[in-house]
Structures are given as structure tokens and as C-alpha cells.
Fold this protein.
Amino acid sequence: MIYVMSDLHGYYEPYIAMLEKIQLQKEDTLYILGDVIDRGPDGIRILQDMMKRRNVVGMMGNHELMAYRVLSRLCVEVTEENAETQLDYQTMCQWQNWMENGGRPTQDAFSALHHAQQMRILEYIEEFSVYETITVDGREFVLVHGGLHDFSLEKELWEYELYDMVWTRGDYEKVYYPDKYLVTGHTPTCLIDEAYRGRIYRKNNHIAIDCGMSAHIALGCICLDTMEEFYVL
């Protein structure tokens, strides 16, 4: 079975509860469409659990991108010789933006790790894909965290900029692919349509699965084989 969830935002217990609810088996695959970290307290703990599971595929969200860009520069030893390049104005602005978007719990947990553990986590995040295309039971799915900015049917997925897929939000009133489903996180479904508060949004060949875990609404997960929806409240 193929499962998809997104936007855990540092809440470990709902994550584990969802794995138990779907009864994830070794032969199954779970895609997590980013924003595992930040806001909640246990984003690093979730990443460490994901790293142990070969059948869990992590994908890049805007929060992983913010964290990686900052931590990959700040977790090195800063000396008099490299201070100007490691602690430059751009990095400090990126750090401030990350903190304003809920990065403090992730930074604190990351800082408590040994250097070797920090490097393993950064290497793991670096391997996250920005998009995935899969076919399940004859249905085609495009998986991204945010959306497809400046969309065109003529454009290949690799032609989109990182920002286009990770930071931007989908237009859920628009059918992007007439013959494919676009599966996204990033935008809580209650902001798409209040009727879908705490529920997965399925309309116009969109499947939006951020059910508002960051606001303590719900964590959603969908099985792409059966289209069955699962929730942890």
C-alpha cells in the first residue's frame, strides 16, 4: 500500500498514532510531503524515526528548506577566519525568518545533539526530493509540498523552480492535470474550504492533506491504493 501524509510540524505522538492506525508494513511506502519540523517540540525526533524506516520517503517542505539553509552553515565551527562567510547577513536574515516561522524548537533540539548526529540529519534532509510522480492502481499522482507556481501543461516538473513547489500554494479551484491527481500539503484544508476543516480536501483533481496539525486540528493520511482516509485528532 502507498500512503501519504504531510505537515506534522513537530508532533511526534500523532505521527506514531497514525503509523499504528494505518498499520504500516515493511512492504508499504509512506510519503511525507514536508514540514515534519518546527512549531511543535519534536520535529527532530520525528526525523530520527523516519531515518530508521526504509519505507518512509521524506520530501522537502518550506520548513525543512529554511532549517537546512541555516543549520548547514551554523553547525560548523565558527572561527576568526570563516566568521564573515559563515555568519553573513544573508544567513542571519534566513535565521530570523526561520525563527519567526516556528523554528526555535527545532533549533534547540538540533543543538542538543552531538555533531555526528547533526550531520546525519542534515545529510538526510539534503536527500529529500522536491517532487515525486507515482502510479498506483492505474492512477497517476504528482506529489509536492506546496504547489506548482506558474503552471503549464507543457512544462516538465524538473523545469519548476524550488520556490515554485515548496513555498507557493496551489489554486484548488483549478484543474492542473485532467488525467492526474496533484497531492499537496502546506495549505491547511480549512483555509481552502472551511467545510473541509480537519479533513482531506479532494476536488478538481487535487488531494490536499494538510489537515491543520500545526493548529492542533487533525493529522490526515490517505492510502492511494484505496483512497481511504485516516485521521488522528
Q: What stands out?
A: DSSP finds nine helices and ten strands in the chain.
